[in-house]
Amino acid sequence: MSLDALTWTADFIKEGGEWVSEKLGFDATTAASARLEGLSAPDPTLKTAETAEVAIRNKLSFSDIHFTFPTTSGRAGREGMQRRISMPAYIQTFQDTYSPTWTTTPVFGRADPIPTYANTIRAITLSLLVPCFNKVDANENLRKLNTLIKGLYPGYRKMQTGANVLESPPLVRIKFANLLINHKNPAKGLLGYITSFSSDMGIKERGVMIDQAGTTGYLLPRALGINLSFSPLHESTIGWDNAASEGEFFGNENFPYDVKKRKGESVAPGDSMAGLGVDISTDHVTQEYG
To answer: What is the pTM of this model?
Structure first.
């Protein structure tokens, strides 16, 4: 962990750690350190969000969605980690579609055409709603939106002649709980490329916050809607091993979603309020987690 991260953690504990420990009954120092482990920089919106939101995001790390850009962002910080964007995953839509591709050849005298299998294509559609609690928080969320949009563009290499030559496509990794993961290494995000992306600031429905600095004016959203379509890339063989006596699946049995492996082991029940679909209030946090 970098010195900046440690300094930020100390400030967070000093400002809000007592409330977190009192209301949620867990060690805020441990939680904050765990959230920052392995990141090149802490998420700035953890300092600008409401206290209840910060507490949930620190205690339930899976309630955040993470984006990294392995081919275009380079390496950041002393740890050499790829730049990461993290935001509370107020999921509005999660659709996972699998499309097996077949070609058919009609044959004279045969009732059914002869099918030939080609591949199976996976496509994911995501819709997020990211709340903005005040002007500072809205500004930080706009920074994240800028980075996401920049991640849709490729990387170039500047030649000695001064010309820019296309070098790398804009691939992305997305990690969300046990639903968007690398099936061989659940700690890694799912590699792929974004085929469509749109943002909706909901100005008509929610209005905006206005911030004026001298002669410059800023319009800041009260919530950010993000919609994207994502095509995963398989980093290893996906399919059944016909040579195995038990019909084993190549790579890992936890494809596409990470699940409990041991018989009789139950999955922890999900809380619909934990940053996964609806707004969080201090009263709810106190009642459910206190």
So the answer is: 0.72
List of long-range contacts for 269-275, beta carbons under 8 Å, 24+ apart? 274/56, 274/60, 274/63, 275/53, 275/56, 275/57, 275/60, 275/63, 275/64, 275/88, 275/89, 275/90
How far, in Å, are 7, 49, 82 from residue 38 at the CA level? 15, 22, 10
Cα–Cα separations (whole angstroms), residue 287 to 59, 225, 273, 275: 15, 29, 12, 16
The answer to whether the bond into 131 is cis (omega within 30° of 0) is no
Q: At residue 235, what are phi and psi to the nearest 5 degrees? A: -90, 0
Angle at 180 between CA 233 and CA 196, to 5 degrees: 60
Per-residue confidence (pLDDT) for residue 254, from 0 to 100:
79
Q: Which amino acid is at 33?
A: S
Give the ranges where the chain is alpha helix by DSSP (H).
Answer: 3-12, 18-24, 28-36, 45-48, 51-59, 135-150, 203-206, 282-289
Q: How far is CA 40 from CA 68, 70, 74, 88, 227, in A?
A: 12, 14, 12, 19, 26
Pick the closest to residue 9 from 47, 38, 49 (CA basis).
47
Confidence (pLDDT) at 77: 38
CA quadruple 44, 48, 51, 52: dihedral, nearest 10: -80
The CA-based angle 247-176-199, given to 5 degrees, is 130
Rounded distance between C-alpha atoms, residue 280 and residue 283, angstroms? 9
Burial bucket for residue 285 (CB in 10 Å: 0-12, 13-18, 19+)? buried
Q: For residue 116, give the 3-state DSSP assignment.
A: strand
In 10 A of CB 95, how many CB atoms? 10
Residue-range domain boundaries for the chain = 65-259
Place of tokens 């993961």: 181
Residues of the chain with pLDDT under 70: 1-42, 73-82, 251, 261-290
**pLDDT on residue 41:** 55
Integer Rg of the chain from CA: 23
